[in-house]
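EF-hand domain-containing protein: structure, please.
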Amino acid sequence: MSLDRRESPGLSKDEFRNLYRNIMGDTKTQVNIRQAYTILNCTGKHVTSAHLIEQWRYLDEKISVSRLNDIYEKADELEVDSTGYAKAAKTKTLKPEEILNAVKEGSLIDKQYLEIVLKDFTNDNGCVDIGALLDVAAQSKVEIVNKLLGPKVEEDESFELKVRGCMTVYPKVQCISYTIDVDQPTFCELILRLADNSDVPTDRFNNDLFLVVYNRDHKLIGLTRHVLESRKYSTGMITINRGDEVMIVGMGTTMNRKSSTTERATLIEENSKLSKRFKYTLMNIFDSFDVDLDGLLNKQEMNFYTVASGDSELTDQDWAVYLNSFENRDGCLTMGGFIKIHEVEATDPEGNATADLWHSLHCLGYDTQLSSIYGCSYDIEAHTSRPIGMLPRLQYVVKEHRSL
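Here you go.
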């Protein structure tokens, strides 16, 4: 059978991505060699199994849509010329087993499927009607390509979710971590950024925090390997599932201790009012525990603060008192209400207010000058292929987590 190689006009990049999307479901999913072979042959271009196997020697196990499009554009197309086609169409002596035996070991052609197809074109003499097979194959290929191309659609829809958290590395190693809530496996890029906090010294926690994603079996799914810019880090594209855990781990590389001092910043003035400096600190603490970034503290967020600062769990009765006594909106505490709670505490008739406040600040990583040398806050951006939820909780970081 005579063959020649001809240049095919082929598909545009947009058409190729559209076809890829219709086969794989989206353009973020990477493909293995067998999936790539299927996609290439659905484009209408006759790419041989041997050609793709040769190309794959220099590639990873899976490749992206852009890399496959490069292969598609550069691949020579194997076509039957008119003379060869006429000669093949007249062939009436090829047995199905001869064709099947011609498929080499390691070929990407599915011999079992090919055997089923050949049965439909085998005549009464037990030979394959090559002409009929070629005609139907050519017609079907055009129909398949047109169907897969379908109407032009916009690029895959993407979603974004932002949450905030905070952590301390001393005296307790604790952080706000998250559980992924999603209906099905979802492509996701998680970006960790150190949040703006005037209480945290500028040299603290830079390149020191990692975002770690692991599943219910504590198998590592992803971590922030890529530095996007100063104080901003990415996991790259990973696949997440319901129940996966997102945790922040501090490595302690910026924890060079400065000289301690027994002199303490003023928290409560002589008139029992909070000092201006301490109010700024309370504002930063409020922002650190505003997990959903709505400018308010709901009951769960306030409970995170209460427990992280060394107190017991917030009860429903405690929360009801806060809402009845302090400024709130939509069932949540405002920043003004949060500061007012501490102003009331400052008037403790037993005189323990200052000691209690310093205990809370110490638990949150503050030193005696209201510098957050052992604690910081962070923002997490989730860029996903479908909507997800990130359910927060306050968690102690133990040796098992750090071993990940």
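Notes: The chain has three domains: 3-149, 159-257+374-402, 276-363.
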